[in-house]
Write a structure and sequence with these properties.
By secondary structure, this protein is of the alpha/beta class. It has three domains: 136 residues, no CATH class; 121 residues, NAD(P)-binding Rossmann-like Domain (Rossmann fold), CATH 3.40.50.720; 190 residues, no CATH class. Helices cover 51% and strands 13% of the residues. The chain contains 15 helices and eleven strands. It has a seven-stranded mixed beta sheet.
């Protein structure tokens, strides 16, 4: 844990403790008319409430990136967190202590005082720390390794603009990549890092943190592929406003003093949503395996007596960050169905057993994957994982396919709902379009929609 992150955690814990002590003092002396004294109740309250706030902040992602900060964002974030946290404390702690309050007006007074104390103290300390960080960035004490990508003229203009600012934006320009060709730019201060085909190597070698893309509308060749590569490597990517109309997906404005850049939204859920998603995965998959146990046993018996071979089928698939794992399925094909090379199933596939066709129609063969979900290799909702053999073929035709490795694969997905099983590489690429839409709109609500639609498909037997 770096020093800046630790400083913020200690500051938040101290602020929460002071706010609770002040609230406790006010409550005892002004509302309950008792003498204030340090008691076990106060000590335990300080410890418990401080840990509660720390959990709120961790789930909100407060300590994810402590260098890229804004005082306005800090104000908004502190306000929202204070309202939510204080309401939870009020309903779980204060409202139960009814015997100490003469009437309901004291409840409103208590929640107002607690909220005010916590917000003012917390924001004050955060404002000091954030202001210090902003000053360090503006004075170039802290900088982010940055590359410029675009055509010759646009790169030169962007570099000149960044240097003309009265205060630093925090971008330490390491060099440039000419997206048109590998020609040198007439600027002795800028280093030519290589061509666009070497982008991934350049990112790793120079520990790039940010990228600024700038080119005229006529020179946008390979732009989508460039952006996808940057997003895949978690590079904060910004483009000039003139390029907005040539970009697909979500963008959000970020003003850098007198220069406006558009930041491409990263493919990720918030820490809170990720926590909820993983919790749902664990609870649901555990319940599914327990409740469906008799049904799974029946399926196993039918498979065993329907054709010779094992009940389960294990297959190497690529998951999060391209890590290989064994996906588990009920065996729906005859043994040795793939002798020479990997093959995709198709309509009328003679390798599929009679019972296998029924399982595939209702997607019963996927049920054992709840175990993959339980141990963290998969999620209930997420792009379907593929074998490396097919993944390489897809990447040759659709380089943006690598974006699906930014999150765990799923038992079902938006691509499976809208397209279904693919019988060849072209169909896989067609299905990929829906998975990319899902990635660009990650949310628990969309996960819920995919889940409900999958249930309808299973009940109607529309699997294939």
């Amino acid at each position: 844990m770096n020093t800046e992150r630790l400083k913020r955690i200690l500051s938040d814990l101290t602020s929460a403790s002071i706010a609770w002590v002040l609230f406790f003092y006010y409550r005892k002396t002004k509302i309950e008319n008792y003498n204030f004294e340090i008691s076990e109740t106060l000590i335990y309250g300080v410890i418990g409430v401080s840990l509660f706030w720390l959990i709120i902040y961790l789930l909100s992602g407060n300590y994810e990136d402590v260098k890229r900060v804004s005082r306005i964002n800090e104000l908004y974030r502190t306000f929202i967190q204070t309202i939510i946290g204080c309401l939870l404390i009020f309903f779980f702690l204060i409202i139960d202590d009814i015997e100490n309050y003469k009437n309901y007006t004291f409840y409103y007074q208590a929640i107002f005082v607690l909220t005010s104390f916590h917000f003012l103290i917390t924001f004050f300390t955060r404002f000091i720390i954030t202001s210090s960080m902003v000053r360090k960035i503006q004075s170039n004490q802290i900088a982010f390794n940055t590359i410029l990508i675009g055509d010759e003229k646009s790169i030169a203009e962007t570099y000149q603009l960044l240097n003309s600012l009265s205060r630093s934006t925090g971008n330490k320009v390491i060099g440039y990549i000419n997206s048109e060709d590998n020609q040198e730019i007439n600027n002795s201060e800028l280093e030519n890092l290589g061509n666009i085909q070497q982008l991934e190597k350049i990112i790793k070698k120079n520990k790039i943190e940010e990228a600024i893309i700038s080119c005229n509308k006529k020179n946008t060749k390979n732009l989508t592929e460039i952006i996808n590569t940057l997003i895949y490597h978690n590079i904060i990517t910004k483009v000039t406003p003139s390029m907005v109309d040539v970009l697909a997906g979500k963008v959000k404005m970020q003003s850098l003093f007198n220069v406006s850049l558009i930041e491409i939204q990263q493919i990720k859920m918030t820490i809170f949503q990720s926590f909820i998603k993983r919790t749902i995965d664990i609870v649901f998959s555990m319940c599914a395996l327990i409740i469906l146990c008799p049904f799974l046993i029946i399926i196993s018996i039918i498979i065993k007596y329907g054709s010779s071979g094992p009940i389960f089928y294990y297959q190497k698939r690529l998951g999060l960050n391209r890590k290989t794992f064994n996906i588990i399925k009920f065996r729906s094909m005859y043994v040795n169905a793939e002798k020479d090379k990997p093959l995709l199933s198709s309509k009328g596939d003679t390798r599929i057993t009679s019972w296998g066709k029924i399982m595939r129609k209702y997607r019963l063969d996927e049920l054992p994957q709840f175990y993959n979900v339980l141990i963290g290799e998969m999620s209930i909702i997420g792009p379907r994982p593929e074998r490396e053999f097919f993944a390489k073929k897809i990447l040759l035709k659709a380089p943006h396919y690598k974006l699906i490795y930014k999150l765990k694969p799923g038992i079902t997905s938006w691509g499976m709902v809208k397209f279904g099983y693919a019988e060849n590489i072209d169909e896989m690429i067609s299905r990929l379009r829906y998975d990319i839409i899902y990635l660009e709109n990650l949310s628990l609500f969309n996960d819920f929609k995919v889940f409900i639609l999958t249930i309808l498909i299973v009940l109607q037997g529309r699997g294939k």
